Amino acid sequence: MSKTNPGPIEETHYGDHSVIVPPHRLKGAVIMTSEPGEIAMDAIEKAEAALAALKDEFSGWMDSESDRLEAARQAVHHAGASAPTLKVLFLAGHDVKGDAATLGYPLAGRIAGSLCRLIDHLPHPARCPMVLVDRHVEAIRAAVRDSRRGKADAIGAEVAEQLAILVEKFLAAELKEGYAEIAGDAHVQIDYPGRDIAAAV
């Protein structure tokens, strides 16, 4: 495919500044068809083929994310729950949360979202419930394995729901009245003291 000339750079000078307008390169990326309004289906097919080829890489990428999350969890166990170790764990979980749906692992992303919520709203690092962190990381790794094997995720969805409930109950107990401020962002709704009052405000 030959490159089209994008045109010259436009530059206008003023007394105290200059305005530079770069050339428009988007036109060169548009494929025109013989009929107006038609879509170049061959370009779409090529894009889909490229995406299908990348899908073979997705499981490897997700494995790497999962391994990084596991390493972060182990670091918290060995060095103790502190602001720095929990930040690394949070970032690893956040990457899983952000990438999982795109890479075809939505359940892992959902569980990672619950883990991130737990860490993000901890009142103090020393109060981090490691048993709950462990169950989240184990569930994420299992979700990655099971998705790759094509297993049904009904049980995984139930695990994700129960973990989310445990996170909300923990945060409600730890934050007490302050929980009302974050309750609206929860993936699940639980009963906590004052919930009816907070909802009415």
Report on this structure.
It contains seven helices and two strands; from the N terminus they run ββααααααα. The chain has a domain at 58-194: Four Helix Bundle (Hemerythrin (Met), subunit A) (Up-down Bundle). The protein has helices at residues 26-29, 41-79, 83-103, 106-120, 130-149, 154-175, 195-200; strands at residues 10-13, 18-21. β1 and β2 form a beta hairpin. The radius of gyration is 24 Å and the shape is extended. α3 (83-103) runs antiparallel to α4. Helices cover 63% and strands 4% of the residues. The longest helix is centred in the first third of the chain and has 39 residues, at 41-79. With 201 residues, the chain is mainly alpha-helical. The chain has a two-stranded antiparallel sheet with strand order 1-2. Mean pLDDT is 80; it is low at 192-201.
SSE inventory with pairings:
Layout: E1 10-13, E2 18-21, H1 26-29, H2 41-79, H3 83-103, H4 106-120, H5 130-149, H6 154-175, H7 195-200
Antiparallel strand pairs: 1-2
Helix pairs in contact: 2-3, 2-5, 3-4, 4-5, 4-6, 5-6
